[in-house]
């Protein structure tokens, strides 16, 4: 798959725009999911994921074909999400709270249609609670927790994606795990 | 072994796959005798399992074509003029 992507990128570099479509198709769900987890809501996630691909396309000349494309793409996406988080206006958080009830609505709809076993309902609630707690982590810990445990990158790959030393990645993943442990220990 | 400093630090090294054999042995020994650290270790393990169990989400329909529609126009090849 890496080879296929490499070939496509070579074509894009030569000016073949249509080759980029396969690259987007291949990475769309991964990048969207990453943005969704970083930002905590679907609307911003789509916005930023779109922007990430457009930036990748317009900056394709600066991409070194000998390096891993996914690392480069995740770096663009992560930087954009962190910029977006920094630029959020205080009133955004009110919206986020309202959006946070989406899960609840979905849950009540589900309940009226079909009867879910108790365990599954609890699981749904737990999942949305965990998602919420991850999205409350400071962005520098959040990005690493997401990349490590949800996208399964190695610590070295995370160091490449975020362009920070491996030692810093380790310190941050340690603090991120402790922060989450404290939030989730009483569940 | 000091719980707050040493044992917890070793736990994190364990989760990152960085423990040496002797560190692993001393962590195990400590955990056997220290209930507080056992609890801490299990909480961390559970946290990681929970995080990993988060649901997968997919990009919305039409995501790719939307990206393609918003790309800057391809540089047109200069057409041959007679």
TrEMBL record, chain A:
It comes from the Bacteria. The keyword Transcription applies. Coiled coil: none annotated. It comes from Virgibacillus phasianinus. It holds the Pfam family Sigma70_r2. InterPro entries: RNA_pol_sigma-70-like (IPR039425), RNA_pol_sigma-70_dom (IPR014284), RNA_pol_sigma-W_bacilli (IPR014294), RNA_pol_sigma70_ECF_CS (IPR000838), RNA_pol_sigma70_r2 (IPR007627), RNA_pol_sigma70_r4_t2 (IPR013249), RNA_pol_sigma_r2 (IPR013325), RNA_pol_sigma_r3/r4-like (IPR013324). Residues 27-89 form the RNA polymerase sigma-70 region domain. Belongs to the sigma-70 factor family. ECF subfamily. The keyword NADP does not apply. One of its GO terms (biological process) is response to stress. This is RNA polymerase sigma factor. Residues 129-180 form the RNA polymerase sigma factor 70 region 4 type domain. GO terms for molecular function: DNA binding; sigma factor activity. Keywords: DNA-binding, Sigma factor, Transcription, Transcription regulation. The gene is sigW.
């Amino acid at each position: 798959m890496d080879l296929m992507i490499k070939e496509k990128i070579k074509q894009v570099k030569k000016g073949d725009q249509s080759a980029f479509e396969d690259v987007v198709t291949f990475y769309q769900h991964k990048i969207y999911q990453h943005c969704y987890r970083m930002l905590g809501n679907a609307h911003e996630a789509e916005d930023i994921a779109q922007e990430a691909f457009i930036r990748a396309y317009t900056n394709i000349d600066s991409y070194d074909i000998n390096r891993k494309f996914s690392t480069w793409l995740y770096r663009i996406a992560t930087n954009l999400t962190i910029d977006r988080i920094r630029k959020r206006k205080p009133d955004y958080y009110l919206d986020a709270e309202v959006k946070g009830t989406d899960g609840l609505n979905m849950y009540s709809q589900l309940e009226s249609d079909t009867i879910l076993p108790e365990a599954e309902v609890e699981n749904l609630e737990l999942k949305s609670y965990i998602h919420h707690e991850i999205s409350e982590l400071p962005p520098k810990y959040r990005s690493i927790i997401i990349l490590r445990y949800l996208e399964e990158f190695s610590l070295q790959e995370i160091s490449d994606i975020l362009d920070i030393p491996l030692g810093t990645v380790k310190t941050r993943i340690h603090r991120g795990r402790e922060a989450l442990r404290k939030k989730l220990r009483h569940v | 072994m000091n719980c707050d400093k040493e044992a917890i630090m070793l736990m994190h090294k364990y989760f990152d796959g960085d423990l040496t054999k002797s560190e692993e042995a001393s962590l195990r020994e400590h955990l056997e005798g220290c209930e507080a650290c056992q609890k801490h270790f299990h909480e961390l393990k559970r946290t990681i399992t929970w995080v990993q169990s988060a649901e997968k989400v997919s990009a919305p329909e039409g995501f790719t074509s939307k990206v393609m529609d918003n790309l800057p126009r391809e540089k047109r090849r200069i057409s041959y003029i007679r």
